[in-house]
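Reopening this one. Same input as before:
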Amino acid sequence: MTQSIVVQVGQCGNQVGCRFWDLALREHASVNKKGIYDEALSSFFRNVDTRRSDGDNNDISGGKIRSLKARAVLIDMEEGVVNEILQGPLRDVFDSKQLITDVSGSGNNWAVGHKVYGSTYREEIVENLRKAAEHCDCLQCFFVIHSMGGGTGSGLGTFVLNVLEDEFPEVYRIVTSVYPSAEDDVITSPYNSVLAMRELTEHADCVLPIENQSLVDIVNKIKHMSHSGKLGAEIKQSSTIISGQGGVKGQEKPFDAMNNIVANMLLNLTSSARFEGSLNMDLNEITMNLVPFPNLHYLVSSLSPLYTLADVNVPSRRLDQMFSDAFSKDHQLIHSDPKHSLYLACALIVRGDVQVSDLRRNIERNASSLQSIMGL
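Same output, byte for byte:
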């Protein structure tokens, strides 16, 4: 089984990452009833015996779960969000040696994050990444989560990407980048985004751009459906992809619902790496099959349905609707209309107990209405 490391940079990156780890733990807990450290858990978690004190060599390869530690490196030049995480329910999931923080922050300035803090913390970043990699038997890829509008997320986030390319050139780099909306109140965010885009284009293997305004629209859509009763009586409001407190202590914050959507997207994207399945797709296959040219590695993501199904057995009728919604502009995580766009490549990751015949039927049904060079 392969392993992946998540690198969370900046306030947004750490908040989204915190939600991802919370959801991943809940998902594994619902499946792993016996508390055994299996291959599914090892893909993103270490099993650590906290009773041993022999440095970093206290990992347990199998048996009962002792103490799960996320394969993650947390970086932020303001310590507020990281401190909240360390005081919350997920405080024991993160290794205190894998945290890099400062006090003053990057002042919403890409250059400060990339040039100033990048050169200052380069050795510490490399050391933390190296330690995280040493705990992996077969390191498959790095997941970088950051925002494009802030100074630390855009500047230091893309600096980390450069470091990963230099130090681990053979390991895939999959980046989740949250873009600011047109009404962003940070005046430097457009400049930060443009400067960071160049770095993403040159140094990432695959980028999943997420737009803040699209997240706001999806949150409003779900709330409208909940209040109007359109979700249906069998679907509870607590099962929508924006529900949940997350791992951060305290009351739910304004951005928590939006962070939940991104975390759910990452949860579904990594499901094939965390669980076995007859039609599973390797994470590296995403880059190999969907990126036709090195610089054309920006993928448009969508989610369907906007709630969690209580039963893994998906009826044909509901599956048809899910396929249709996946290509609807209301379900895209970046402002785009798939029906009026040209596809270079497309991949559909389906979770649950579904019939292959239903999948083929829906692929053929949607292929006729989409413009694609390669075909679905």
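So the earlier flakiness isn't reproducible anymore. For the record, Strands lie at 3-9, 45-48, 67-70, 72-76, 99-101, 139-147, 172-179, 206-211, 342-343, 371-372.
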